[in-house]
Amino acid sequence: MKYYYFLLLYLFCMGCQKPGRQSSSLLTNKFNDTTLQTIYTAQDERQTSVLLPYLTHADASYRQEAAQAFASVQDSQAITSLTPLLTDPESTVRRAAAYALGQTGKASVEEILQAAIEKETVAAVNAELLEALGKCATQKGLETLVKYDFPDPIVQAGQAWGIYRAHSRPLQFKTALPKIISLLSSPSPETRLAASHFLARTTKLDITPHTEAVLTAVQIDPSPEVRMAAALALSKSKATHLPEEVAGIMETEPDYRVRLNSLRALTNQVWILVKPIVWRALTDKNINVALTAADLIAGKSTPEEAPELLQKAEQTLRWRVRASLLATAMKQHPDKKQVLSSIQERYQQTNNFYEKAALLSAAAKDIAGASFVEQETFAAQIPVVRTYGIEALTQLRSEKNFPSNQKKHFANLFQRTISSGDIAAVGITAGILRQPELNFKADFTNTSFLKTALDKLVLPRDNEAYQEVAKTVAYFEGKPEPAAPKNPFSHPIDWNLVKSIPANQKVAIQTNRGEVILQLFVEQAPGTVANFVLLARNGFFNDKNFHRVVPNFVIQGGDPRGDGWGGRDYAIRSEFANLRYREGFVGMASAGKDTESCQWFITHSPTPHLDGRYTIFAKVVKGLEVLPLLEVGDKIIEVRMQ
Predict the structure, then answer these.
(1) What's the Cα-to-Cα distance from 302 to each of 264, 297, 335, 395, rounded to whole Å?
(2) Domains of the chain
(3) Could you give the residue ranges of the DSSP H alpha helices within 478-580?
(4) Is 511 helix (H, G, I), strand (E, B) or coil?
(5) Burial classification of residue 34, based on how many CB atoms lie within 10 Å of its CB (0-12 exposed, 13-18 middle, 19 or more buried)
(6) Mean pLDDT score of the chain, rounded to an integer?
(7) What pLDDT, in 10s, does the model give residues 423-440?
(8) CA–CA separation, 3 and 504 (whole Å)
(9) Residue 18: CB partners within 8 Å, gap ≥ 6?
(10) 558, 559, 601: which is closest to 581 by C-alpha?
């Protein structure tokens, strides 16, 4: 009898559902709803005309989804239709409209957003409006943002993020700086995070008068994410006691990201005062901190220290640190043959192709290594070695003291490289040929080889190289730089595959450093997730390398070439849901909007400058401790669905 009552209860609950919509608890994900498929297909195909009617749909959830879609479409023609949604009865719709309007980046929506802020009563929506205002702000809009005083922590955080978003616009921040300093001591960790990132990422700031406030944040803020951003902001201070303070932070700070950014804060300090701190950091237990120290040494050390650099390089067991120190020694050491000999010996001993590539970069720090680099580059069968070698040669040619008797040889070398047809070699070399100060126009009276190379490139696969060559052709012809080509829509979303993916689908990435578990965001980025799942099920990512690791930024993989220039024969569309890059979030690498393919990255820490610009499609739910262990060349052993 009890089963009979359960059946009645089930039928009653089903009867309470809206027509055409099913209970989400009974679905794999929300895309069993065909209307949502239509909305997301229109987003994917950038069909404004299909989306606009849904902005006035009777169902608020469809209005919300359609408004959200315009955050990816970014069609300014939709501004007029999105504006009325800022007074929609449903707060979720108002928030989606605010986000979409912010994504346009158009100053024309500034007054629209300001008017909505004055009337909005829901904290989350007001926060979204304030952040959107920052994305579109003129100087007047920024001053309005700064003048607000919100006691609600959610709204205050929105204000702080709004001011942060304005930092990338060509504005003056004289009045914003004191406001941000006051927000740096807010009880709200989200507000402090936004404030610290403004200080860290806004160019041409002088925070010297506020050094103590920022130092306090670095030393005692309970959030390591605030501490690390505030530490980076210290690079904008001229305070003479900073080296002493940083030395203390390096001794006591448990989070490697804070130590790393504290080192970066020493960039503008007197080298003799910071040298002991930096040398000690070379042996930090975290490889990313040691690499940062090596990079700092490259920019600060003197020729007198070159022998010591060479000695340090020979002593370290970390190949990336060693390669960096050898590069600095190659540039500064009076005995180039001695350093080159050490580089060549390491090159022959290692079986790590990424180490070989780094050693070619090191050898090219002086013309004495050019012959070795050229020989190994053109003999290399592995793309990553060849790519690094070409890049090293172009950087060598860019040096101000490059010998004139080598210029013709390098011009012939670069023409040979362009004609090779290798996508990375073509893209990298094309970039240097249009540097006006190098005057390659005098070397090439016939540039047909460039047009031939351009004709051989295939879109969308070769988009990045295509852009480089097209710009170079225009440069030689004296024409304006062409706009980036728009990838043709050729890879529609596989809705049958999407519907089969649970909303909480997990993926295991087995690496040689440990396992990382992701949760996919199929409901926020269905096209991207479907692409990733299909590639994973086909074993595409297995045995690939993490080809890029930027300390306290990202680790990147998924490239079939292993050098960052590889992709598939198709491109998928960018999907900009209202998500933020925090530690362990997974995004798609691209060469611009709608150029994504198979490369993806995982963030080491919050990276708000990527928000709304690179598709977020997953986050790490287990294995965060593995991320700082991963190095260039580490292996993606297997990617499997769970």
Answers:
(1) 18, 9, 15, 21
(2) 403-485 (no CATH), 495-641 (2.40.100.10)
(3) 495-499, 526-537
(4) strand
(5) exposed
(6) 94
(7) 999 999 999 999 999 999
(8) 30
(9) 59
(10) 601
Tell me how long the chain is: 642
Could you report the per-residue pLDDT of 336-387, keeping only the tens digit for each? Answer: 999 999 999 999 999 999 999 999 999 999 999 999 999 999 999 999 999 9
Do the Cβ atoms of 71 and 600 come closer than 8 Å? no
- b/e sequence 45-72, b meaning 16+ C-beta within 10 Å: ebbbebbbebbeeeeebbbbbbbbbbbb
Nearest residue to 566 via CA among 427, 391, 401: 427
Neighbouring residues of 76: CB distance < 8 A, sequence distance ≥ 6? 104, 106, 108
Instruction: Give the model's confidence band at 485: pLDDT under 50 very low, under 70 low, under 90 confident, else very high.
Output: confident
Nearest to 305 by CA among 263, 275, 280, 284: 275
Alpha-carbon distance values, 608 to 44, 70, 194, 229, 583 (Å) = 24, 20, 9, 11, 11
* Distance in angstroms (rounded) separating the CA atoms of residues 223 and 218: 9
User: Residue 24, Cβ neighbours under 10 Å: how many?
Assistant: 14
| b/e code 339-372 from CB counts within 10 Å (16+ = b) | bbebbeebbeeeeebbbbbbbbbbbbbbeebbeb
User: Contact 323/359 with Cβ under 8 angstroms?
Assistant: yes
482: preceding bond cis by omega (within 30 degrees): no
First to last CA, the chain: 38
Q: What DSSP character marks residue 480?
A: P
Percent of the chain surpassing pLDDT 90: 94
